Amino acid sequence: PSRAARLLEFMRTVGRLKEVKRTGWVRSGVHGAESVADHMYRMALMGFALGPTEGVDAGKCVKMALVHDLAESLIGDLVTEGESHRQDKITREEKIRRERQALHGICDALGGEVGEEIRSLWEEFEAGDTSEARHLRDLDKFEMVLQASEYEESQGLPLPDFFRTTEGKFGTPLFKALDAEV
In the prediction, which pLDDT does 82 show? Predict the structure, then answer.
């Protein structure tokens, strides 16, 4: 396929994220549940705003936030044991395997330096070994806690599982403090 065809296919793949609803919210009865794209967008802005104060590369955080759930455009938002009381029947390892396979397919189809950068950022996020990845992993969990708090307030819907699954899981002082505030 031509470069234009590959780019158009990538844009369509990304666009599917606007239609993929976050599984945990749907299964918990949230009305008008956010999409994966909604989640990634707020994460990207949070990474942009919070990165400099935490000594991490904000630009890299924004990019990582924008690609960390990209595979869900093909496989959906899978929930594993420990993430919620209502999970899909797969392990965390199987979820990562499926996501990696889908993500690599997206990157291979896109090709070029950008495809390689997306793959590299996703792998870095999954490994969680860099300061940016650790920051984003905490940010990912905190964005969910913040969203749960907003849904509880706006819909009067108790969502204790979303708070319980993150108890004691924040590794950075900023997100421990933000979690305490929520």
Answer: 56
Res. 55 pLDDT band, cuts 50 70 90: very high
21 φ, ψ (degrees, to nearest 5): -80, 150
Q: What is the DSSP string of 69-124?
A: TTTHHHH-----BTTBSS--S--HHHHHHHHHHHHHHHHHHH-HHHHHHHHHHHHH
Give exposure, 119-131, as e/b (b: 16+ Cβ within 10 Å): bebbebbeeeeee
Q: Kindly state the average pLDDT of the residues 90-106.
A: 93
Burial readout 38-76 (b: 16 or more C-beta within 10 A, e: otherwise): bbbbbbbebbeebbeebebbbebbbbbbbbbbbbbbbeb
How many Å apart are CA 124 and CA 107, to the nearest integer?
15
Mean pLDDT across 13-36: 96
Complete domains list, the chain, with CATH: 3-129 (1.10.3210.10)
Which residues, 6 or more positions from 61, have their beta carbon under 8 angstroms from its beta carbon?
47, 48, 50, 51, 132, 135, 136, 139
Report angle CA 7, 11, 16 to the nearest 5 degrees. 150
Residue 13 has which token pair?
């793949």
The residue type at 179: D
Residue 87 has pLDDT above 80, yes or no: no
2 — phi, psi (to 5°)? Answer: -70, 165
